[in-house]
Structure formats: structure tokens, C-alpha cells
Amino acid sequence: MHSSLVRLQQVFGFLTTVSFILASIIALTSYTYPMNPTASIKINDVAVVKRRSGGYYSTRQNEYANVKFDLNADFESLYNWNTKQIFVWISATYGGDRYPTNEAVIWDKIIPAAAPSKKLTLKNIKAKYNIHDITGEYAHRNATLKLSWNVQPHVGVLMWGGVGESITKSFVFPSEKARNAV
Amino acid sequence: MEAIQDQFQAVVDGFIDFQGQKLAEQITTYTLTVSAIVGFLAGFVSQNIVYTLYICLAGTVLTFLAVVPPWPFYNQAPVRFLSSGSGGRNSGSGGGAVVGTIVVDGQEVKVKT
Lengths: 182, 113
Prior knowledge:
By secondary structure, chain A is mostly beta strands. Chain A has one helix at residues 4-29, and strands at 38-52, 61-74, 83-94, 102-112, 119-126, 131-132, 142-153, 159-163, 171-172, 179-180.
């Protein structure tokens, strides 16, 4: 530490050590908070329509499903001192003959820590994303909706989870253009 | 001209003595560690990570300001060398001739050639 340059390097070197340890401890504190958000989803309406897909000039036709639903959720427990924002999404899970495991996101939302309320009460909203199946048709398959979340911390790794009680009763994709109440 | 160059070189180098180096290292260790601990506790207790950030940044700036420049209190015990003219007599007998005494850790030590 005899010259200014050496002292500069020494202080910076020790600073990186301290910062890394501090960041690790902050990241570990995230795991001490219980994260058990609650949510319930009620499906109001499911519609399947046929639309042209694959671009402007394509003549290929796909079936698209659109869902209207109510959502009541309380994400308060996901917020602690290390939460920057959370990302929540609702996905539809359904089976199939050729491709038995399918999951598609129909709605999502980012709620920053600065948001005034961490509770969501959404009435009869339309899914943000029309989903379509890889085979091009839904063919009366059973599906369920489920809410999942990510916590983006200030320091640390992305945390993942799902709300178990948010899983809806299974519903059936209706025929094209027909509508059925669930 | 050379005097100005030397002065400029001294400012750039910022040499400090051995006691000062020890002190500078201790100050680095303690201020950075304490600011990290205080910052963590303040942020954790208030559940606001911004406090942690600012307290640690303040501690860092303080440490750089306190340690990097060659402040006068780092040069309180400069090394005093024996003058080059004090020795030089060589009697040739075993063990050498005593040419003076210096103080090491509070004890007087005889210096032989």
C-alpha cells in the first residue's frame, strides 16, 4: 500500500470481495420469506375461431382459442425487500393424441414492487393471447387454466412458482365458432 | 524545472511510510466491512434495499477518500536511514566494529560493520 495507485487497487479489490459476500447474503434472505400467493380463476367463456395463419400471403387456416375469465389474486406474500417486480401468467394446459403435453400462455402481467396494490381483481377479461395448437385444431379437447409466477429479485436468481388452488376445473374447447358457457 | 517535476512525481506516487501502510490497510478493511454490515441491517430492518445501496456506496466513497490520497497522518513515522558517513571504519577483527546504535521496537541495537 505504499503508493496511491497500489492503494486504489487494494481498496477496489477488497470492495469486490465485500460486495460479493453482501450480495450473496441478500440473495439468501429471499428464501426466508414464505411465498404463498392465493388466486382463483373462473372461466366465463371459451370460443374457438378459424383464422388464416402463417403470414399475410398464407392460405393455411388454424383454429384459435380465446378465453374470457375472472381472476382474483393476492400476491402480497411475494413482495419482500429483495423483490424488484413479479411476473404472473395464466397458461392453458391440454392433452392431445399426437402431442399429448401442451401448455400455452393466454394472459400475463408484470406487477412492480412500486405498484400501489398487490391484489388483482379482474372481471370478465379477455385473454391477451389467442392460442392455437400445433395440429391446427382443438377438436373438443379438455383443458385447464393455471396461474404461475416469477419473482425478479434485486439481487439473486429468478424464483419460480405456481398457485396450486388456481387450477380450474377442466373445460372443453368448443367446436369452431360455437360458444359454450362453462 | 526538475524540482517541479519531482513535486509532481511525489503527488502522483503518493508514497506513505510503513506505519501508514498498515493503518491504510486497517482503515480499508474496517470501513468497507462496517458499511456493508450497517447497510445490510438498515435495509433489512426497514425492508428497503435502497438504504443498503446508499449506505454501502457512501462507505465506499469514504474509504477511497480516506485511503488513496497520501494524507499527512500516513507519514508520521518516516524511515530514518543511518547517514552514509557514520560507518566505513573496518578494524578487521572478528564480529566487526561497533559503529553506532539504532532503536528497533524500543530496544537499542548495536550496529556493527
